[in-house]
Write a structure and sequence with these properties.
By secondary structure, the chain is an alpha/beta fold. It has 11 helices and 11 strands. Strands 3, 4, 5, 6, 7, 8, 9, 10 and 11 form a 9-stranded mixed sheet that branches.
Length: about 300
């Protein structure tokens, strides 16, 4: 077989990106190099082909006839190379980085991670927690578990895990003294969810009761710890209460269950939708919460 005489792959990539964007600046941004480097690589390819690929005009770039032919061939070749490398990657799992809202991790995900090890023993997952929504951006991780609506989001895959319904909880010993008087009971607050009490009281038909100041905590987990210590009552996410209810540390203090339009969701960039490792993890996680994503249509509040 004759030896193939091929141009520089770096030069081909720089040319293909420039032809797609019709801009060396945008091509440089995509390839994470300088516009000068893109210009040199395109010039190298032109010298190798002994033909101009662009006409450089005051209004911008324009492909020559040779450039149009080369752009089509380069795009097809790079697409086939991408498909080949994706096929190789599909035969092996890579390590994933998953950002998770901390309270969801401790109450819902940690008890299930043993099943992940049993179901997908070759898949390795690094979990990174935060209570700050600005930290849980899909662009910073392979995927994130965060709070959002279910509507489409540009460039993202959003898969529902658990609807957010809020209830009021307290220590069982406090409830043994009788029904809570919400005009008097100490209200425990989670600072990132500062509107929870007002919204729950309004939903429960107690609009005349004022939300009073009281102890406040930086995370929902800390707020529940304070409620379990009988420091007062707290508004909690019902789907994350099972460990506390089953252990008897907390009890639901009022029958009102306030549904919302928000869910815990798994989110990742659409460009990763065919990544085999991420797909395996996402499918496993969604199976864990099957049956928990049904909400009453039309009854959800913000």
């Amino acid at each position: 077989m004759p030896v193939r005489r091929l141009p520089s792959l770096h030069a081909v990539r720089a040319f293909e990106a420039t032809a797609r964007h019709m801009s060396m600046t945008l091509a440089a941004r995509e390839l994470a190099v300088t516009p000068g480097a893109v210009s040199r690589l395109v010039r190298t390819l032109e010298e190798d082909l002994k033909a101009p690929l662009f006409v450089r005009k005051a209004g911008g770039l324009e492909l020559t006839p040779v450039g149009r032919t080369m752009a089509e061939g380069a795009r097809e070749a790079l697409d086939r190379l991408h498909e080949a490398t994706t096929g190789v990657r599909m035969r092996q799992h890579r390590r994933l980085s998953i950002g998770v809202y901390g309270h969801f991790l401790s109450r819902a995900l940690l008890p299930r991670l043993r099943d992940l090890t049993l179901s997908l023993p070759s898949l390795e997952v690094d979990v990174h927690t935060s209570t700050n929504a600005l930290d849980l951006l899909p662009t910073r991780f392979d995927a994130v578990v965060a709070v959002s609506g279910l509507g489409p989001q540009a460039g993202l895959v959003v898969r529902p895990l658990m609807p957010i319904t809020t209830v009021v909880v307290a220590a069982p010993q406090r409830l043994q003294r009788g029904p809570l008087d919400f005009a008097q009971v100490p209200m425990l607050h989670t600072r990132p969810r500062s509107e929870d009490w007002r919204r729950w009281l309004d939903f429960a038909g107690m609009k005349s009761i004022a939300v009073r100041g009281g102890s406040s905590f930086e995370s929902a987990s800390q707020t529940l710890e304070a409620a379990a210590a009988d420091l007062g009552a707290a508004v909690a996410i019902e789907g994350l209460l099972q460990p506390d209810l089953q252990s008897g540390r907390l009890a639901i203090a009022h029958p009102a269950r306030r549904p919302t339009t928000r869910h815990f969701t798994l989110q990742y960039e659409a460009r990763l939708a065919r990544d085999p490792s991420l797909t395996a993890f996402a499918d496993w996680l969604c199976r864990q919460f099957e049956g928990e994503t049904q909400t009453a249509v039309g009854s959800a509040a913000p």
